[in-house]
Write a structure and sequence with these properties.
The chain is mostly helical. Helices cover 77% and strands 2% of the residues. The protein has helices at 3-9, 15-44, 53-76, 79-89, 95-118, 120-127, 132-147, 149-164, 169-189, 201-223, 226-232, 242-280, 285-322, 326-353, 355-360, 369-406, 410-434, 441-464, 494-497; strands at 482-485, 488-491.
Amino acid sequence: MSHTDDTTLTGGRHPLVEILAIAAPTVATMLTYTILQFIDAIMVSRIQPASPVYVTAQGNGGMWAWIAMSFAVGLTGVVNTYVSQYMGKGEPRKGAAYAWAGNWFSLGFWLLLIPYAVALPVLFERILGHSGQTLRLETSYAQICIMGGVFMMLARSTAQFFFGLHKASVPLIAACSAILINIGANWVLIYGNLGVTAMGVTGAAIGTALGSLSELLVLLAVFLSPKYAKAFGSRETWRPSWRPIKDIFKLGFPAGAMIVNEMVCWGYFMTALLPRAGAAAGESPDVHNAVGWIALRYMHLAFMPAVGMSIALTAIVGRFMGMGRPDLAAKRTWLGVWVTMTYMAICALLMVVFRDRAVEQFIDEGTDPEIAAQMIALGARIMIVGAIFQVFDAMGMAITGALRGAGDTLWTGVVFITLSWTIIIGGGHLMIARFPELGSLGPWIATAAYIIMLGAALLVRFMGGKWKSIQVVRHEGEPSLTQTLAGEDLTVSPDAMAGVSPGSP
């Protein structure tokens, strides 16, 4: 395939320019989520009297709330796949039905989470062994996040529609509105400003819910606008329809199961293994738990933009697969992989160079000097371990997005589940038993091994090429050679399509 074919299909733009133009708003959107979590953690760390328990409670509560919602978020992520493939096929109006199907599924799933929210104290106290102030605060934070989680799940599902259309600027604007609302609400509710009673960690949870509501309202305003209603029929397909819901569930179930499984493993890792490892080393479990959350916040700054690239690759690969061009899908994937790996390698270097200062930002001045010194020393070591696996994490996330765009979700899900339980959980317990003197650094080393092995497995899968023959959308006839995107025509010449089949190398 000549370079001319590439530029013909992308309006004359260089492939790197094309992928960055599509990915940049998506990356920025995911970065806003990371900034939001980062600011939340910073703000709760300033609650008085100073204590690491606030960061611990906010992290633990947020993790187990996210675990509950992650299945729906992972499953509805394939809305992106359907929307982008129908766009590539020249039938973009069919995508709106899948956006509505994702929203209806999210709403129904949220209703099932209410009993889970009620039972959270049992999980934290009897299963994870938490008690005292940590138990009280993490329970409150998680329950409020789940009650307001309906806004987040609906927002994430609706955002996938825009990602699939390569219109990621819309979710970006929505996410920015969420940041502004959340920060303002936090300032009032956490610290008790403007005459409101200080609510501490509980106030942070309410601020998160209000931010998610703002994000959802912005997305729906655009999705239901006259422009989108005319171009994509977004107002015509709102009624629940079994066929798109069934399609989303069938294709998205492995992705949903994959993400909820991994989040359960990460949740157990962060809230059970790290405190247990700290106790095994004869040190404070709360300190090891809090330091783990501090390090993870910085890792989020590195890998959440990479998640954005993964989402963008889902849309890009889905579009080219809908056009019957797996060769171009592969080219864009490799380009996305190298861009993502370069970014995360830079982040890894910064994590090593500024590791001490980074940890200090989450430690209030009123913290006991001995505890503060312990947190900085431990956090610095964990940041080094995190830097080691960053590049492999970048490769794995980029390839995962590409495979999802092609509809290759089952194999990926099985590998994620197998390796996460074997290495994160099994390896974490093994490190505590064999090397207790390492404290929580031991489980972090096991997690590094997991990410490296997962990245290698995904690389082998992608290079095997089986994803090229997967058919996601229904083909009643030959793929259309003209795509319409928000009123802009992108015409593909018949010569560019000649001799191309889904199985072409």
